[in-house]
Amino acid sequence: MSPRNQPGKRALDLPARRARARAVVKILRREFPQARCSLDHRDAFELLVATILSAQCTDARVNLVMPELLRLFPTPADFASAPLAEIEAAIRSTGFYRNKAKSLQGCCRGLVERHAGQVPGTMAQLLALPGIGRKTANVVLGVAFGASDGVVVDTHVGRIAAKLGLTAETDPVKIERDLNACVPRADWIALGHLLIEHGRRTCKARRPDCDACPLYKECEVRA
Fold it and tell me: What is the extent of the structural domain holding 48?
C-alpha cells in the first residue's frame, strides 16, 4: 500500500484544521456543486426509514427497496403494528435485515407513542427513539429540517477526514466532535454531502484516484 492510500496518523492542531476545513469546503463545493442526499424521500419520515436502511448498504439499493416498503407500510403506525417477519422480508436485500427491522419497528412505535406519528425536529428527541444514533439523527435534521446538530459521519466522511488531518479518531461520535470544532456551523450539512460524494467518485476506499483528486495538496497521506 502506498503512503497516499494509508489513513492519517495524526490530526493537525486546531488552527490548522480550521484553515484546512475552509479550503476543503471551498474546493469540494466547486467540484461537486450539486452534492446532496442521494436517498429518495418525500418527507422526514421517509428519510428516517431510508437512513436506517442505508447502514452497510448502498443508497441505490435502498432507493430500490423503498417504494414497495412504503406501499406495504406507509405510516409509522403501519410499521409499529406489522409482524416483524413481514418487515424483515421487505428489507431483506439491504442486509442486516433483522436488526434493521427491529430498529424500524422500535423507532416507529416511539413516533406513534411519543410524537403522534410525526418525526421530531431535535437531536435529543431523535436519539431517544429506539434504533436511532447520531448519524441518522444528523441526516434527518440536516436534510429534512435544515438544522443539523453536527456533521454527518459515515465511513466515507471518517476515512477522508483522517486523510486530511482533520481528525485522528476512529469512533464516529469523536470524529463528529472534531469536525464540528473545525468546520463553521453553516457548513456542517454541506460537508457531509461533499465528503460522501468525494468518497464515491474520487477518494474511493479500495482504489483512490489520487492523480485526479482536487484535495491532493490538502491530504496528509499523499505520496
Answer: 44-121
